[in-house]
Write a structure and sequence with these properties.
Shape: globular
Number of helices: 7
CATH architecture: 3-Layer(aba) Sandwich
Structural class: alpha/beta
Oligomer: single chain
Number of strands: 11
Strand content: 25-35%
Largest sheet: 8 strands, mixed
Length: 222
């Protein structure tokens, strides 16, 4: 899909896909959104009770969530195994347009931006002594794993763009892939998404959303 680089309100970049009329991140601030939803509401909570974490990201995209997680790993001395699903990765020509100035808000994780996108699919890569990555070029429907996850970042395109990604059956499968007490976080707070998570077995809470969004969801496997 043809795409362009766009600068969001906090000065960090995102990708706009005209074919879908959709951005990869919030135009109110790409890094702000990732920090609020996935790091503060997800990683920070999961790391309280776990010295090592197994994380699954649904929708790797630009890799901002991964890089901010890596930054948190470096500063918090947590060991992470990170699995990421991305069936339609951004084209190399758009990724090459991201400069160090664009990425500076990612902290130390910014240094790994181009490396993570060059990692071969379905092969373990040690990006940092505390951070191992495996990328899967699978759809969520096709993805299977023998791993159990402490934390899931659900960062698919919005339900209005990819409604099939937000079905109850997917949340059932993700629930079964998680440790007891595992956390799933997403920027989406739609009522039908919350109900799908609850029907899958999660305890779901609404949290204040990032800039430009009133609420987000955090789901816990009790």
């Amino acid at each position: 899909m043809r795409s362009t680089l766009v600068i969001t309100a906090d000065g960090s970049p995102t990708i706009f896909v005209p074919e879908l009329n959709e951005h990869y991140h919030s135009v109110h601030g790409a890094v702000q959104e990732s920090m609020h939803v996935f790091i503060r509401a997800g990683f920070d909570e999961a790391a309280i009770n776990n010295a090592s974490l197994s994380i699954l990201e649904v929708g790797l995209g630009t890799g901002f969530n991964l890089l901010l997680t890596l930054n948190a790993v470096i500063h918090n001395q947590v060991d992470v195994t990170y699995h990421a699903i991305e069936p339609f990765p951004p084209a190399n020509e758009i990724l090459s347009a991201f400069t160090s100035a664009h990425l500076e808000q990612l902290g130390e994780g910014a240094a790994y931006f181009h490396a993570l996108h060059q990692v071969p699919w379905e092969k373990a890569a040690v990006l940092h002594e505390r951070f191992t990555l495996i990328k899967y070029r699978d759809t969520l429907s096709d993805f299977t794993s023998n791993s159990k996850y402490h934390l899931i970042y659900f960062d698919a395109f919005a339900p209005g763009v990819q409604p099939d990604m937000w079905k109850q059956e997917h949340f059932v499968n993700l629930f079964n892939l998680m440790h007891s007490g595992g956390i799933l976080v997403t920027y989406c707070a739609k009522g039908d998404v919350r109900r799908a998570m609850q029907s899958a077995g999660f305890k779901v809470e609404r949290l204040p959303g990032p800039p430009g969004k009133r609420e987000m969801l955090r789901a816990i496997k009790i």
